[in-house]
């Protein structure tokens, strides 16, 4: 994500004693974490090696270790080198965001160790009764804070809320409030996600609809392109830099009636119509700096008969037309199987097709077990070996995921925060 798109604002932190919102300097969280870690994607160097940074070299005694701030280019270079050193199987596993239903830290740690997956999504079955206990779980999932997995959660608030202690307003009411209210709510929500040791929030529903009978209506932040634009951008600004924002469900569930958990909702809306309506909030979120874009199991048949998750054309549009340069992630691939359509019965085939279409990370939840990640990994390896999946596409995806993981580490998100952080006075 280009630094020009990054915004620095003030955050809010939930005041534990009263449940009210108290302003705190956002930079304090990242700075405190990085103070006991490193910057720039693990940029450690000796004082002698820091000669290219005169101010740093002048201040550090010879022989001491200093922290060298990294650039976006250096993080990408480290990510490329890390992926190049991986085996094919390790690369395949690194683009999977897996899941198992348990709150046992030992089982979760073993799962991460044996599968080598690049991420894990925490669902309701992974959330214990307290924030302190949840920090123990995220610590168990993080085998190496220097290269932390992308830990994700669906913390929209309201109808979709995994954290019982999140009492910030949600889209149910925010869609009728000024954008400032959305920024404030998502600043608090992002802080709660960060406090739990989770790096990615799948929390910003950029879909728009004014039809109260639509499946996605209550979860959508906007009812029109204009309101969606202001609220989505505000949500991204609010969450950054506490958590990594994800826009969903691209290219827009609001135009496609039905529930994508039970089928493939579709619409005949044309590209030009989409560009003037459903596309607008996604473009605003991308411009505001959202580093992840979730592709939905939705078909805009005038653009591509395939659901967007499996459409190379929709991935081209996202990157070339909207300028998205972050990590593209699927909605839960298990939903494709649950659609009941024969062409989506095979989870491995779905994973291969999704990666080939342009997704960088494969999310797998519904119907998964402890063996699912290994089965998907083996399927991706076989697809590369057979030529069904270009090795270059897997490498590209793995580098994008690794880059975000290293950026997560450099921001201190790979470290579990303190158990009793007091808000600023």
Automatic annotation (TrEMBL):
It comes from the Bacteria. InterPro entries: GH, Glyco_hydro_3_N, Glyco_hydro_3_N_sf, NagZ_Beta-hexosaminidase. GO terms for molecular function: hydrolase activity. Residues 108-404 form the Glycoside hydrolase family 3 N-terminal domain. Pfam families: Glyco_hydro_3. Keywords: Glycosidase, Hydrolase. Belongs to the glycosyl hydrolase 3 family. This is Glycoside hydrolase family 3 N-terminal domain-containing protein. It comes from Microbacterium schleiferi.
